[in-house]
Amino acid sequence: MVEWLGLDWDPRCLQHYAGENLVRTASITQVRQPIYQRSVARWQAYLPFIPELADICIESCTSASA
Questions:
Q1: Side-chain half-sphere of 13: how many Cα atoms within 13 Å?
Q2: pLDDT in single tens digits along all 66 residues of the chain
Q3: Is there a contact between 9 and 3 (Cβ–Cβ < 8 Å)?
Q4: Within a 10 A sphere around the Cβ of 40, how many other Cβ atoms?
Q5: CB 52 within 8 A of CB 60
Q6: How many angstroms separate the CA atoms of 14 and 23, rounded?
Q7: pTM (two decimals)
Q8: How far is CA 28 from each of CA 18, 21, 32, 33, rounded to the nearest angstrom?
Q9: Count of CB atoms within 10 A of residue 50's CB?
Q10: Quick check: 16 and 23 in contact, CB under 8 A?
Q11: How far is Cα 38 from Cα 40, in angstroms, rounded to an integer?
Q12: What does the alpha-carbon distance between residue 45 and residue 51 come to, in Å, rounded to a whole number?
């Protein structure tokens, strides 16, 4: 996704929870946690609301693996 967005890779992307920047959101505790297994595929619940974005992501992933 980082490459697709045209951004340079930064190893800190894998440790987002270790950042010390101010977070102003109700989910501040989630921002400070590593990604955990129960979140895998949870995005699919939002698929009806983001079909265009999903199509772009699926197309991008499919062409990248070819």
A1: 8
A2: 888 888 999 988 887 777 777 767 767 667 666 767 777 788 889 989 998 988 888 888 777 666
A3: yes
A4: 9
A5: no
A6: 18
A7: 0.35
A8: 12, 11, 7, 9
A9: 12
A10: no
A11: 6
A12: 11
Pair 57, 63: CB distance under 8 Å = no
pLDDT at 37: 75
d(CA 20, CA 4): 26
Tokens of 46: 């939002």
* Assigned token pair, 53: 């974005």
Residue type, 2: V
Helix or strand (DSSP H, E) at 64: helix 51-65
Please give the C-alpha separations between residue 55 and each of 19, 59, 61, in angstroms, as whole numbers.
31, 6, 10
- For residue 51 the two structure tokens come to 């079909």
Task: Report residue 35: phi and psi, to 5°.
Answer: -65, 135
